Amino acid sequence: MSDETSKAMSLEERTAEKGADVSASGEAPEPAGVLSKRQRKKLLKHQKWEEERELRKEKRKERKQQRRLDRPSDETGEGGATNSRKRLRRDASTSSLRLVVDCSFDELMMLKDIRKLHRQIQRCYAENRRAPHQVQFYLTSLGGQLQQNMDDHDQGWRNWKDITVKTEHYMEVVGKEELVYLTSDSPNVLEKLDPAKAYVIGGLVDHNHHKGLSFERAQELGIEHAQLPLSSFVKMNSRKVLAVNHVFEIILKYLEKGSWREAFFSVLPPRKGAVVLGEGGQAAQDSDSDASDHQAPDSTTDTTVPPGVNHVEASHASKEEETQTLTYSTGASKKHEKNI
Q: What does each C-alpha distance from 246 to 240, 252, 272, 327, 328 come to in angstroms?
């Protein structure tokens, strides 16, 4: 009886183990070395993918070639604009003029200002690469927070082309007699650019916390200084202090157009409120405002002027009448209040 009991128990255990395997996988276990239906499907799909690899490659080439043929040849389309940009980059001429961004103000800026300066330098680099008349771009005194921020957020900057990056001060890179520091506080106005000079732009984003600092440093070092001829062509609502990339782009535009006026109005952002100055030094909008002051009066107003009385006397008379009417109406209202 013990033998029969042990056999029955072993049979039940094996059955239970099989049931557990089926319930766990959802499928009956396959013998060793035999692929399941799902595995066979995956294998066939992978084999088909490998067999069609070359076919897919050929199709990609055909689609790429067709897109190239369909791309518009003129410069008005999207593809044409891209080709034009590449063509300009190939045909760009490099000027002997040097633009130096002085990065020696690192300790005077907060981290948010450092990041703004980094973005401005990126814009300068991109604009110079696209410009038909490129300048020799220098970054000097690079280090500290600025270099750390560039390494953290733009590691590709180390592969930039057509730029000279130095940790040394610009006085150690360029001869003193060749330097001109661009600062809006300088009394000297830059009428034209000298290709033999190196123009220094202060890499400082300070929101006017350090006014005149770059001018003071230029004086201390005994180097030439000048300001862009902004006041000769533009009337601005804000201070004449421009961002690093704006100064950089204005000079690039001047090299391209040969006109300060065109350069300023091609670059200056609308928030600066720039207005064109006429030959007499007056803003164009002043004449517009004067014209608006002399617009025709409302049709309900009697504009008849008696003979022998000029318009100025008539206007004074009308103002006096308005004043008297206002006085009378005020007095009448006061009498009415007393009666009440």
A: 11, 10, 12, 56, 59
